[in-house]
């Protein structure tokens, strides 16, 4: 398949003019302001296009943007699923658009939806309690590690380290550091999984937690998870589950049953809320009984005597991780998606996601060094540059996979088609892989050729940062 | 067949599934799972699948349980009218269903939109660097504190914040500060503004950051911002200023009063009232370019020599720098930033300034009307206000708030005898009823 992306190009090397280039207006603020001059700015200069021009501008920009509704978007560990349209309508209910500082009795509807979603997520993850407050996966990690720290502190255990496998998401390392922990990086075993002996050597009295993704970032299930949990628990540490790959487990395995004490859910991955070009997401956190009193405040529970729902503060709460209740609109969409699929649909999503990954891997000419994998696999581009192969794939009507990560696979192409691609779509994807992989060095260097922009010089962009239209005017 | 006993969002026919399984040489999908029996789950979630229509009806019933109130609520989460064009353009699937722009050549549209968002914040703050979003105002403030810790690491570990600060914001800041070993200390306020003399007395070598808000959590405009900036500068501390893009349209430009960092709730534009969901504004001076948290979009050139855009300076970020990253943030609020930018473009500078001016005059007008009621004093603080102000009531404030709610109006209770009232373009048309109810219950 060939894909020519829409492009608007002018002779002066500009694709679509910036809003500022379509005409700016300067307003004399002090002329109109009811405030004394010393409390105001002098003037404000911003674009002032008429609505038709705005509609055209953003429509053109949208046409220069790939999305899951455009075609396959198999970024590994990103779980780019189709985002059901009706969930947008559910979230747009005007009755739900209320202020978070309302009295409890006047916000019963929003409390009820939160309560229901907490219950659903608890069951799906095998967790005893859930907070919906973290506004993204990384915020969920931060919440979970802060909860773990509060738990250890409460028990008089001063622990300074978080153990993280080398193959983990970068957020795990950054989260541990943000929470004030030293990071102990665990090298991967030869089979791509956690090396149990290395783990035994790494954990000890200083271990606050092990952060683990399962299936891991090359799609492998940590078969020794029961032993891993014992090792960490015997050392007095907690087991943290990174929910990025939960889509593979739905209905077949629950972090709570595997010995995990705390986890986050990436609802914008597993539960199909739209990524919106980078966010918003939501990263609810689930915990086992021992940790519930440390969760962020407030939590939502059923009130006594069937009088609806109420907020309450856990006894040893870590406080707050978001100014209010988190990314509300995203949470509503999550509820709608989970309700739509139910038990059978969630299990089927995992089954089809794993089937699709395995089928696609079977159809591509690249080697996949580690298996058996589940919902994603890390192919290797071998002696080709994975980033170049990816750029060439852009010409064939697909988005390429995540490249050059995880590092345990040389020239990795981490691929996660998700359950939403059918057989013919997977065949197209495989063809894109194979054409790009087999193409000449010259073709790879020159790619992409059919996108709105040709190959972008990222090194120069970083060396010479121009981060606003004001900076462009100066240069 | 999918949709009956499976997910409706997988397109496989039974025949296709069978063909794919055959190609893999297995009988069913279960054979592809490598989960040991000891940890496998064979129970049920007990979640009954429902149709689209059933879920819409169900959620509609649930949300109808929220009372129908006219809200005079603010304190960090503001509703302004969001024009229809914002929804229609931002909801285009090419924006809404896209991922982070890791392949910039095929993602120019969103990158340019974020570049434009950053540029609008540069104009509003006067600071040259704005990132393309944090989660909300509270987490942006937390990130500012860790930035201060990185760039002012010489001696201190104290973050000075106004004693009047939204509690939730302070609670979030505490969690960010805990990991960095920072301590939060409140400085006193004098009649709704920072007590600059007390702040100057307190500032010293141990202070890494001074935080102030304009407007404050009680809606007061800070009258001595430049003096606060000088106190911070003299202590070699970072001056972080909290605001929002509507207020910034008319208030003093942060750069002009010495702000090093501006944080705040940019969701005042683009987001309707959304139960506290936000858009974290983060801007700073050039000096901290390589210490900024979050994603930055920069201009670039493509191989044809055309102007293009790309995520840049990514070596600050967690996916490259891991535990040495400037933040752990990955997923942000990009789509909300897109909405804010479209909203700002729709208003233009005239509309934005008008909106901000109305927030000043409507607040003053409503305060004057409440002040005329026996048993109420408004505004309590002798300052200019944006959107909101504090009212002193002789009776217990909570009882008044509760009575007002029975009359169909929601306000904040901030202290035993203090209420807070917020008026924007959304509820300005209902102030007559509100004033009448206020008079009634008092």
Layout of helices and strands:
The complex is a heterodimer of chains A (475) and B (442).
Chain A: E1 24-28, H1 29-32, E2 43-47, H2 51-63, H3 86-91, H4 108-125, E3 129-131, H5 137-154, E4 161-165, H6 170-178, E5 182-186, H7 196-202, E6 207-213, H8 225-234, E7 238-242, E8 262-264, H9 267-270, E9 285-287, E10 299-302, E11 309-312, H10 328-363, E12 377-380, H11 386-393, E13 402-403, E14 412-415, H12 423-438, H13 441-446, H14 458-463, H15 469-474
Parallel strand pairs in A: 4-5, 4-6, 6-7, 7-8
Antiparallel strand pairs in A: 1-2, 3-9, 8-9, 10-11, 12-14, 13-14
Chain B: H1 14-24, H2 52-63, E1 70-71, H3 84-90, H4 93-96, H5 108-125, E2 129-130, H6 137-151, E3 158-162, H7 167-180, E4 183-187, E5 189-190, E6 193-194, H8 196-202, E7 207-213, H9 225-234, E8 238-243, H10 245-248, E9 261-265, E10 280-284, E11 296-301, E12 307-312, H11 318-321, H12 334-371, E13 376-377, E14 388-393, H13 397-406, E15 409-410, E16 412-415, E17 418-422, H14 431-441
Parallel strand pairs in B: 1-15, 3-4, 3-7, 7-8, 8-9
Antiparallel strand pairs in B: 2-10, 5-6, 9-10, 11-12, 13-14, 14-17, 16-17
Helix pairs in contact in B: 3-12, 5-12, 6-7
Written account of the structure:
The complex is a heterodimer of chains A (475) and B (442). Chain A has 475 residues and is of the alpha/beta class. Chain A has 2 domains: 86-339, Type I PLP-dependent aspartate aminotransferase-like (Major domain) (Aspartate Aminotransferase, domain 2, 3-Layer(aba) Sandwich); 344-461, Aspartate Aminotransferase, domain 1. In chain A, 35% of the residues lie in helices and 12% in strands. Chain A has helices at 29-32, 51-63, 86-91, 108-125, 137-154, 170-178, 196-202, 225-234, 267-270, 328-363, 386-393, 423-438, 441-446, 458-463, 469-474, and strands spanning 24-28, 43-47, 129-131, 161-165, 182-186, 207-213, 238-242, 262-264, 285-287, 299-302, 309-312, 377-380, 402-403, 412-415. A 7-stranded mixed β-sheet of chain A has the order 3-9-8-7-6-4-5, with helices on both faces. In chain A, strands 12-14-13 form a 3-stranded antiparallel β-sheet. Chain B folds into 3 domains: 14-59, no CATH class; 70-81 and 348-441, Alpha-Beta Complex (Aspartate Aminotransferase, domain 1); 84-341, Type I PLP-dependent aspartate aminotransferase-like (Major domain) (Aspartate Aminotransferase, domain 2, 3-Layer(aba) Sandwich), CATH 3.40.640. Chain B is 37% helix and 16% strand. The radius of gyration of chain B is 25 Å and the shape is globular. Classes of the chains: A alpha/beta (475), B alpha/beta (442). At the A-B interface, strand 1, strand 2, helix 2, helix 3 and helix 4 of A face helix 1, helix 2, helix 3, helix 4 and helix 5 of B.
């Amino acid at each position: 398949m060939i894909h020519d992306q829409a492009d608007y190009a002018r002779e002066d090397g500009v694709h679509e003019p910036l809003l500022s280039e379509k005409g700016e207006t300067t307003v004399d603020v002090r002329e109109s302001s009811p405030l004394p001059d010393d409390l105001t700015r002098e003037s404000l200069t911003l674009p002032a296009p008429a609505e038709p021009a705005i509609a055209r501008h953003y429509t053109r920009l949208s046409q220069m943007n790939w999305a899951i509704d455009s075609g396959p978007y198999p970024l590994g560990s990103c779980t780019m699923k189709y985002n059901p349209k009706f969930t947008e309508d559910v979230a747009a209910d005007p009755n739900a658009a209320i202020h978070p500082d309302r009295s409890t009795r006047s916000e019963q509807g929003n409390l009820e939806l939160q309560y229901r979603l907490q219950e659903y997520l608890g069951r799906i993850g095998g967790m005893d309690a859930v907070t919906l407050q973290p506004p993204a996966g990384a915020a969920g990690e931060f919440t979970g590690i802060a909860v773990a720290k509060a738990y250890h502190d409460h028990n008089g255990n001063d622990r300074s380290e978080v153990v993280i496998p080398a193959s983990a998401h970068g957020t795990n390392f950054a989260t541990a550091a943000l929470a004030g922990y030293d990071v102990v990086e665990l090298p991967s075993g030869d089979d791509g999984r956690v090396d149990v002996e290395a783990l035994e050597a790494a954990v000890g009295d200083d271990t606050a937690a092990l952060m683990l993704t399962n299936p891991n970032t090359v799609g492998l299930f940590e078969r020794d998870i029961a032993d891993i949990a014992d090792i960490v628990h015997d050392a007095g540490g907690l087991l943290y589950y990174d929910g990025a790959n939960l889509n593979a487990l739905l209905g077949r395995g629950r972090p709570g049953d595997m010995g995990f004490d705390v986890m986050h859910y990436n609802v914008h991955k597993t539960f199909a809320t739209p990524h919106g070009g980078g966010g918003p997401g939501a990263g609810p956190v689930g915990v086992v009984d021992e940790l519930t009193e440390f969760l962020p405040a407030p939590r939502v529970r059923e009130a006594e005597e069937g009088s609806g729902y109420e907020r309450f503060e856990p006894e040893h709460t870590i406080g707050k991780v978001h100014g209010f209740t988190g990314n509300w609109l995203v949470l509503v969409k999550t509820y709608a998606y989970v309700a739509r699929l139910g038990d059978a649909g969630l299990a089927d999503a995992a089954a089809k996601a794993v089937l699709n990954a395995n089928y696609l891997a079977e159809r591509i000419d690249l080697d996949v060094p580690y298996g058996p994998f589940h919902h994603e696999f890390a192919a290797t581009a071998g002696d080709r540059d994975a980033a170049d192969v990816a750029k060439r794939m852009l010409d064939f009507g697909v988005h390429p996979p995540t490249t050059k990560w995880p590092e345990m696979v040389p020239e990795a192409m981490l691929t996660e088609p998700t359950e939403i691609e059918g057989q013919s779509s997977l065949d197209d994807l495989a063809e894109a892989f194979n054409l790009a992989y087999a193409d000449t060095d010259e073709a790879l260097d020159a790619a992409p050729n059919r996108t709105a922009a040709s190959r972008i010089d990222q090194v120069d962009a970083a060396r010479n940062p121009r981060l606003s239209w004001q900076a462009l005017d100066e240069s | 067949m999918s949709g009956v006993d499976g997910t409706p969002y997988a397109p496989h026919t039974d025949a296709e599934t069978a063909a794919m399984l055959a190609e893999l040489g297995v009988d069913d999908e279960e054979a592809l799972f490598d989960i040991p029996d000891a940890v496998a789950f064979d129970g049920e979630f007990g979640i009954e699948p429902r149709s689209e229509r059933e879920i819409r009806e169900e959620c509609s019933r649930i949300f109808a349980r929220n009372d129908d109130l006219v809200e005079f609520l603010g304190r960090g989460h503001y509703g302004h009218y969001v024009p229809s064009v914002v929804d229609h353009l931002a909801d285009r699937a090419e924006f809404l269903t896209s991922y982070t722009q890791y392949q910039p050549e095929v993602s120019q549209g969103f990158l340019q939109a974020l570049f434009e968002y950053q540029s609008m914040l540069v104009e509003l703050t006067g600071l040259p660097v704005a990132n393309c979003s944090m989660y909300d105002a509270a987490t942006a403030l937390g990130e500012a504190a860790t930035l201060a810790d990185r760039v002012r690491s010489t001696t201190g570990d104290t973050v000075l914040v106004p004693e009047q600060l939204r509690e939730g914001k302070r609670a979030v800041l505490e969690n960010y500060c805990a990991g960095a070993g920072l301590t939060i200390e409140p400085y006193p306020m004098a009649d709704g503004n920072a007590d600059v003399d007390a702040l100057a007395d307190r500032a010293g070598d141990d202070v890494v950051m001074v935080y102030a808000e304009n407007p404050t959590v009680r809606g007061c405009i800070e009258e001595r911002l430049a003096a606060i900036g000088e106190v911070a500068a003299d202590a070699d501390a970072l001056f972080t200023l909290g605001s929002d893009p509507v207020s910034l349209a008319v208030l003093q430009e942060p750069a002009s009063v010495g702000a090093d960092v501006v944080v705040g709730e940019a969701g005042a534009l683009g987001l309707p009232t959304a139960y506290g969901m936000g858009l974290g504004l983060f801007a700073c001076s050039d000096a901290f370019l390589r210490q900024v948290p979050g994603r930055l979009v920069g201009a670039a050139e493509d191989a044809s020599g055309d102007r293009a855009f790309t995520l840049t300076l990514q070596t600050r970020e967690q996916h490259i720098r891991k535990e040495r990253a400037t933040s752990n943030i990955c997923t942000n609020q990009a789509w909300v930033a897109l909405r804010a930018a479209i909203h700002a473009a729709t208003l233009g500078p005239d509309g934005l300034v008008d909106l901000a001016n109305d927030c000043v005059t409507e607040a003053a007008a409503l305060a004057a009307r409440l002040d005329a009621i026996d048993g109420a004093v408004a505004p309590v603080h002798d300052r200019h206000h944006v959107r909101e102000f504090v009212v002193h009531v002789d009776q217990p404030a909570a009882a008044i708030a509760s009575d007002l709610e029975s009359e169909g109006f929601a306000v904040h209770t901030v202290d035993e005898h203090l209420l807070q009232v917020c008026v924007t373009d959304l509820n300005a048309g209902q102030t007559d009823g509100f004033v009448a109810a206020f008079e009634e219950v008092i």
